[in-house]
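for the recovery benchmark. tokens below, seq after
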């Protein structure tokens, strides 16, 4: 699955794919799955969710 830190950093699917050495379509598939599971429709919502997850992981 795509790293929430990379999504939160505002990287494009292509940039995330490059960072993780996978195909951009793989990232697109995982992000689409995240959108569906979390009832998200836009990337800014995914970025906000990623920020919340990172804060939770870091104990903030």
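predicted aa per position
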């Amino acid at each position: 699955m795509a790293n929430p830190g990379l999504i939160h950093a505002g990287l494009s699917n292509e940039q995330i794919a490059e960072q993780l050495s996978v195909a951009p379509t793989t990232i697109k598939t995982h992000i689409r799955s995240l959108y569906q599971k979390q009832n998200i429709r836009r990337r800014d919502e995914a970025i906000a969710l990623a920020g919340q997850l990172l804060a939770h992981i870091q104990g903030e």
